[in-house]
Amino acid sequence: MPEQRKITVFLLDDHEVVRRGVHEMLSVEADIEVVGEAGTAADALVRILATRPDVAVLDVRLPDGSGVEVCREIRSQDENIKCLMLTSFADDEALFDAIMAGASGYVLKAIRGNELLSAVRDVAAGKSLLDPVATARVLERLRDGKHTKGDDRLASLTDQERRILDLIGEGLTNRAIGERLHLAEKTIKNYVSSLLSKLGMERRSQAAAYVARLEARKN
User: Fold this and answer.
1) Residue 71 and residue 13: Cα distance in Å, rounded?
2) By percentage, how much of the chain surpasses pLDDT 90?
3) How big is the chain by its Cα radius of gyration, in Å?
4) How many CA within 13 A on the CB side of residue 5?
5) CA distance 157 to 67
6) pTM to 2 decimals?
7) Which tops the pLDDT comparison, 163 or 142?
8) Mean pLDDT across 26-53
9) From 45-59, 82-96, 169-183, 192-206, the region with the lowest mean pLDDT
């Protein structure tokens, strides 16, 4: 009989102890092979696209970004790579972002070892591990307009900042926004810094995801 093809897995977590523990647990399984690991989002993007694993196990919170952002970028370039989000916190916001980014699963770090192994195998087989009840709760809350935390912050933006936020949501760079609004790139950069501060965010990607959530509520 030909040898069964192994499930290839990539690990992203900024804690070496966590990575090593998960690596060792997965490596002893006959049907799983760990093909790489990283501790930062930037490193992971390069290595994951180079190794093309079946499953990328991604920590949600990272020092230089988010596993959700890594998931979104990977999935936009290769939909064959399945993403399993691993986090310490049960959070509706992160769950919604994971759904929007195309993740196949979302599990807590408190998960038992055998449950994580099952999750990796299920995701590799094309199954979704996103809890339908939790998913429905998040989407229902958005549809009902109960997600008001963002609305209060939105009201603090000027009309120009609102326009720029919408353009960030369309994926435009500062330079492209400047050309659209006939303003200098440095001016746009200042506007972006101001609106991020008012929204309580640090990165453009957070603002883009925020716009996506607002659009989801309208539909």
Assistant:
1) 13
2) 38
3) 19
4) 7
5) 28
6) 0.63
7) 163
8) 95
9) 82-96
Q: In the chain, what is the greatest distance between 2 CA atoms, to the nearest angstrom? A: 67
Q: Are the beta carbons of 71 and 101 closer than 8 angstroms?
A: yes
Place of tokens 């980014």: 101
pLDDT band, residue 215 (cuts 50/70/90): confident
Q: Within 10 A of 103 (CB to CB), how many other CB atoms are there?
A: 27
Which residues in 177-216 are b (16+ Cβ under 10 Å) and which e? bbeeeebeeeebeebbeebbebbeeeebbbbbbbbebbeb
In which band, very low, low, confident or very high, does the pLDDT at 20 lie, cut at 50, 70 and 90? very high
Q: Output the 3-class SS for the chain.
A: CCCCCCEEEEEECCCHHHHHHHHHHHHCCCCEEEEEEECCHHHHHHHHHHHCCCEEEEECEECCEEHHHHHHHHHHHCCCCEEEEEECCCCHHHHHHHHHHCCCEEEECCCCHHHHHHHHHHHHCCCCCCCHHHHHHHHHHHHCCCCCHHHHHHCCCCHHHHHHHHHHHCCCCHHHHHHHHCCCHHHHHHHHHHHHHHHCCCCHHHHHHHHHHHHHHHC
Q: Which amino acid is at 28?
A: V
d(CA 34, CA 22): 10
